[in-house]
């Protein structure tokens, strides 16, 4: 059973969480999934961090609460849906920020986006017993996702559009959150759960004062930013990923314009930085993603030329390994992971911005077969774009040299659709993250320079429909 309210757990992570909830040991999980015990440990660190638990018992309780594990009970299930978050007046927003979105009909009131919750108890078993009077349909409604058949292809199974059910009005699904402390672009942005709370971490980037080494943490519940221990080297044109309980930030362009090969790693629970094995060569403007506890860096800029290199970093032994290179050199593309496949989208080379949309399958590279395949290209070329995957869709923000909307890519249909956003059409070097039902769009630059805006967009919600059992 898939649950879109889970905090961006991959299918493999959900599978491991289910097995943990059954009482399986790491060795048993490894044997069943045909992976190593060390890989299981890496997955568990990632899972515990994402769902905010500290033990297997807490993880099991979480799995049961969120419908990943059925438990037998005698009474009928109780199914409830939470209402949309109640808006509260947000007096912390500056007048200019409010005016910037007022013309778009977007609310500036803020209420901490909370995951929609539903209570389920052995739903399949209850259905068989005929005692159920209702069930839940998880509906992925995308703001302006156009419901037009493409070549008579069916709608993907990941979207359920019940007849007569309309999505919430677009203006109620956007929130302008507390701005960044300073306008900022080209920074690294990740989500991380710590001590039961969910945060965004913004690291480095370029501000009006120059290249930054700041580490900023956004508390989603309180809508506030705080500054933490600075990164050892100030860099921009970077990305970050989370593996276990660490945040990894490779390379980047320094304040002097040189390109770094340093791998800086942040430990949130200690508010401490460490430096690990350097990249094989200096890189900035790369794409970055994780699969199966490994980090993959794609292409980038070395200070003189665009690169096609693909490197894999193994956190277990602190080593970098060369993998099959990109089909062509490029930088300032974006990466989004869906299951075990990494989509490398857009970017630029000597000829300018690109429309490329390609998949890298890490398991094929290990097996020494071609890991690259091509998908439907972007509708128009984009570079310095931001992309994030959520529930079988990839959201793409900014990066166009023309007046163009954001985009949604439907992985099942291999099709692109426009998404209207209350942000600058030519936004560049913004960063996006998906958490629970929300897409967070942070910073970037437009024709006037770096911006400090932070938006939350409710991309998914739950709908409850009655079910009348057969007599």
Task: Describe the structure in your own words.
With 471 residues, this protein is of the alpha+beta class. 14% of the residues lie in helices and 33% in strands. The strands form ten sheets. Strands 2-31-28-27 form a four-stranded antiparallel beta sheet, covered by helices on one side. The chain is globular, with a radius of gyration of 22 Å. The longest helix is centred in the N-terminal third of the chain and has 15 residues, at 37-51. Helix 1 crosses helix 3, helix 1 crosses helix 4 and helix 2 (26-33) packs across helix 3. It has seven helices and 32 strands. The chain has two domains: 11-65, Arc Repressor Mutant, subunit A (Orthogonal Bundle); 172-461, Kelch-type beta propeller (Neuraminidase), CATH 2.120.10. Strand 15 (306-314) and strand 16 form a beta hairpin. The model is unreliable at 71-164 (pLDDT under 50).
- CATH architectural label of the largest domain: 6 Propeller
> In this structure, how is the largest beta sheet organized?
4 strands, antiparallel
- For CATH, the homologous superfamily of the largest domain is named as Kelch-type beta propeller
- On the 0 to 100 scale, the average pLDDT is 79
User: What is the third-level CATH name, the topology of the largest domain?
Assistant: Neuraminidase
Unreliable spans are 71-164
Termini Cα gap: 26 Å
Globular, elongated, flat, extended or rod-shaped: what is the shape? globular
State the oligomer. single chain
């Amino acid at each position: 059973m898939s649950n879109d309210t889970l905090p961006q757990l991959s299918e493999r992570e959900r599978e491991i969480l289910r097995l943990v909830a059954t009482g399986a040991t790491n060795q048993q999980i490894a044997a069943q999934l045909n992976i190593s015990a060390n890989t299981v440990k890496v997955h568990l660190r990632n899972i515990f961090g994402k769902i905010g638990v500290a033990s297997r018992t807490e993880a099991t309780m979480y799995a049961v609460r969120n419908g990943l594990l059925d438990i037998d009970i005698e009474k009928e299930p109780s199914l409830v849906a939470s209402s949309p978050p109640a808006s509260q007046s947000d007096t912390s927003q500056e007048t200019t920020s409010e005016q910037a979105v007022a013309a778009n009909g977007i609310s500036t009131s803020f209420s901490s986006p909370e995951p929609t919750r539903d209570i389920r108890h052995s739903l399949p078993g209850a259905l068989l017993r005929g005692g159920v009077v209702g069930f839940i349909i998880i509906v992925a409604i995308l703001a302006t996702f156009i419901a037009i058949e493409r070549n008579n292809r069916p709608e993907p199974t990941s979207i359920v559009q019940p007849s007569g059910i309309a999505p919430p009005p677009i203006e109620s699904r956007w929130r302008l959150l507390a701005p960044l402390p300073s306008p900022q672009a080209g920074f690294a942005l990740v989500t991380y759960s710590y001590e039961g709370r969910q945060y965004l971490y913004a690291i480095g980037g370029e501000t009006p004062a120059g290249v930054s080494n700041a580490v900023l943490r956004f508390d989603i519940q309180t809508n506030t930013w705080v500054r933490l221990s600075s990164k050892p080297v100030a860099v921009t044109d970077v990305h970050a990923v989370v593996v276990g309980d660490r945040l990894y930030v490779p390379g980047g362009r320094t304040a002097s314009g040189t390109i770094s090969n340093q791998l800086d790693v942040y430990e949130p629970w200690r508010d401490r930085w460490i430096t690990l094995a350097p990249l094989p060569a200096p890189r900035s403007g790369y794409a970055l993603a994780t699969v199966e506890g490994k980090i993959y860096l794609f292409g980038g800029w070395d200070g003189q030329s665009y690169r096609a290199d693909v490197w894999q970093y193994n956190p277990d032994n602190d080593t970098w390994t060369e993998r099959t290179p990109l089909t062509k050199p490029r930088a300032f593309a974006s990466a989004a992971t869906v299951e075990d496949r990494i989509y490398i989208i857009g970017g630029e080379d000597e000829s300018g911005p690109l429309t490329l949309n390609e998949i890298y399958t890490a398991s094929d590279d290990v097996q020494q077969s071609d890991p690259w395949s091509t998908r439907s290209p972007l509708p128009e070329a984009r570079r310095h774009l931001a992309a994030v995957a959520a529930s079988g869709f990839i959201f793409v923000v900014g990066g166009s040299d023309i007046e163009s909307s954001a985009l949604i890519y439907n992985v099942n249909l291999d099709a692109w659709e426009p998404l209207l956003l209350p942000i600058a059409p030519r936004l560049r070097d913004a960063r996006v993250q998906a958490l629970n039902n929300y897409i967070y769009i942070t910073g970037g630059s437009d024709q006037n320079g770096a911006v400090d805006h932070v938006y939350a967009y409710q991309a998914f919600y739950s709908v409850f429909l009655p079910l009348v059992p057969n007599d």
